[in-house]
């Protein structure tokens, strides 16, 4: 009640009602834009941290022999790199974009549960502080890969694994609270007239992603809890010696893990589906089939988990089922790619930075999709599994898919957020250097993988040396380029040409009806939907 | 955690940069391999690859065409279409049909891979941190296979050999043109036994026995590596399979059995401390140093030190117990089943006298035999 009364007393000076000042503004804020901003900065910090670890990995792999780090530390680096990139960089970046854009796209004043929103964010820095601090604990950080297969992670892990479990629980809680908030916002706070089938695709993809999160994060929590019990309370979920089953771990893990990889890509589909039409000056082709394709991908993601486990010794019928189901995902994914290409077909294209990232997204993600299709073929997977071919595959979907998708979104909406245009020349430089670096780093990994190099090894046979050196050079280029992005963003915040509300000539949607930057409280009265 | 030796590092980098491809090879595809299955898989792989290439050319072709011809800067006027049910149905249906055409050969190959019936020879493969054990079930022959690349090559102190990291002290030996069935399991964590030329990759899982098979057509040496992260020396767990003609295989088997018999005789010999110590040192380097380190200092807290440890300088009986039975719930394996009594006695003697553990104790093979007989 008091909130309502408060509102009344403030109506007169509503337009003065801006953010509080100082440090506590950020700690206590419940404003979706502030929280979105914090998520994005946090994600970028984690991206650089995880990236630094990738640089350690690539330095060690620059040539055969052990030069820089010992194998124990190398394993800690791959593990933390994977965990930080997945849970610290990609997922929070998407949540940040959702916080900023979902209310603005559906004509809502804020997120549905602003206080919970504050909590979902602030849990994260603590979770990652705990995770990273395990590097300095006795026995070192987790060293069992981001998939943390038991019994390596239970019976043979360093003591810090308990902190790792705590930190995974915290990340999970944060994700679930974030997801609930997004669902509640989308279902309840749409402006009158904004029917489901009028929602922008970014909102759709996030709605579906949020359901995926709610479905699978508890599974992840379950599996780490079982580990905790095995380690400290004498149970034997995963210990064959006590009657447990190491393969059970993998089933539970991948029941979470496979949908997780779609969590890391669907919101990028949404962002790209906004960007390509804008710079093609043409409506998105096949909106309805895009929505259905996204939903089908999400559904299929629940019945394919065991394609990560073709070599564990499943029965033939199991292998066949998971092979066919996995291959099916190519159909809705194909629909999406064809629709994006057709959106560009006979448009009037311009190539500003967001569009460059979006086009690279479509091309490189498709290449990652091709290698994914190859991996789906169970008998061939016997040769590819756990080699660098897999590392190439998932980096082709994660770097151009998730990361380029995020960059495309940030460049696209940055003028809206800050009220300033970014420097187009610098933006394009950032794109081209990233594009070249990324391909140089990851394309040769297909070759060494097929030629027989296992993943997660700190040293390799001589026949893999040439391509590994090229990979490392590409990785250093890609890594260094990301600092340019930091500079571009700071420069845009501090200065730069004033942005119009519309920003892009072909842009459509409610967010562009607001001034740039938008007022601190978005849409205090619901907008009209045509 | 950091290895020292910056100057050596810089020297290595500069030679590498100076000669471009000093390492010569540019392998970029799957090997066709030496079995029927490996060739089926290779063909399947290439078929799917070319289908992907064709799809890619079409899709990216349309895309590049649009990017080149429909630029705003060329005065392109945007069309307004945004839906076409027929087209959307077509590009759901066509990919589906392509997938069916891929699924058929894939299913056939998979059935072939799974046909482990009617084998001529059965070999049990057990993964350990970080070595493989091969046991020929019908012939009562068994042995460990360890990485044989010298530490100095790995540390860049010596030039690397041709088979750097892909060489072992004792390869698995098999006859050609026989159906060989592998029974694959593990003793500690999950490993995966992979030889690309045979197209066999199967996880070795504690508590499970997985099956795989091969029939090698040409004599030769085929190399592979463990393919599942299994701890710090995962990258140093190679697999070498030597395929021999039937006669050569028989000769090898006979020699192997004789050597084992000799080994058993050693048990009853009278050993001097020096003999035990020097034999023990070899066993230590091969079996224990991976975890406890060559200097006996271990990697606490996961791998405890032997140097100055309570067990290694205390009661010999306790020391024997730890080595023979292992320590439940830790990485310390039960070596009683892996090593001969001679080797166990030798390595214990070595540990009790090396690195300043000057107990002066001597543990002889008979002590181990007695320990085992006491049923502990
Ligand atoms: C400059 C960019 C990057 C480089 C050079 C890089 C490099 C690598 C390398 C060399 C590995 C180790 C492969 C192995 O030994 O098995 C790896 C693993 C991995 N990377 Fe990246 N990476 C980069 C960016 C990313 C991004 C953006 C993501 C996610 C969004 C990501 C996710 C992962 C994951 C999940 C693993 C697996 C970790 C594991 O084996 O447990 N990486 N990366
Ligand atoms: Cu292994």
Automatic annotation (TrEMBL), chain A:
Pfam families: COX1. Keywords: Cell membrane, Copper, Electron transport, Heme, Iron, Membrane, Metal-binding, Respiratory chain, Translocase, Transmembrane, Transmembrane helix, Transport. InterPro entries: Cyt_c_oxase-like_su1_dom (IPR023616), Cyt_c_oxase-like_su1_sf (IPR036927), Cyt_C_Oxase_1 (IPR000883), Cyt_c_Oxase_su1_BS (IPR023615), Cyt_c_oxase_su1_dom (IPR033944), Cyt_c_oxidase_su1_bac (IPR014241). Pathway: Energy metabolism; oxidative phosphorylation. CDD domains: Cyt_c_Oxidase_I. It is found in: Cell membrane; Membrane. The chain crosses the membrane at residues 38-57, 77-98, 119-141, 161-189, 201-229, 261-279, 291-310, 322-342, 354-378, 390-410, 431-449, 469-490. Residues 26-530 form the Cytochrome oxidase subunit I profile domain. It catalyses: 4 Fe(II)-[cytochrome c] + O2 + 8 H(+)(in) = 4 Fe(III)-[cytochrome c] + 2 H2O + 4 H(+)(out). It is a multi-pass membrane protein. The keyword Heme applies. Gene3D superfamilies: Cytochrome c oxidase-like, subunit I domain. The keyword Transcription does not apply. Its EC number is 7.1.1.9. Cytochrome c oxidase is the component of the respiratory chain that catalyzes the reduction of oxygen to water. Subunits 1-3 form the functional core of the enzyme complex. CO I is the catalytic subunit of the enzyme. Electrons originating in cytochrome c are transferred via the copper A center of subunit 2 and heme A of subunit 1 to the bimetallic center formed by heme A3 and copper B. Belongs to the heme-copper respiratory oxidase family. This is Cytochrome c oxidase subunit 1. It comes from Spartinivicinus poritis. The lineage of its organism: Bacteria, Pseudomonadati, Pseudomonadota, Gammaproteobacteria, Oceanospirillales.
Automatic annotation (TrEMBL), chain B:
InterPro entries: CcO_II, CcO_II-like_C, Copper_CuA, Cupredoxin, Cyt_c-like_dom, Cyt_c-like_dom_sf, Cyt_c_oxidase_su2, Cyt_c_oxidase_su2_TM_dom. Residues 275-355 form the Cytochrome c domain. Its EC number is 7.1.1.9. It holds the Pfam family COX2. Keywords: Copper, Electron transport, Heme, Iron, Membrane, Metal-binding, Respiratory chain, Translocase, Transmembrane, Transmembrane helix, Transport. It is found in: Cell membrane; Membrane. The chain crosses the membrane at residues 48-68, 89-111. Its cofactor is Cu cation. Residues 118-255 form the Cytochrome oxidase subunit II copper A binding domain. Subunits I and II form the functional core of the enzyme complex. Electrons originating in cytochrome c are transferred via heme a and Cu(A) to the binuclear center formed by heme a3 and Cu(B). NCBIfam families: CoxB. This is Cytochrome c oxidase subunit 2.
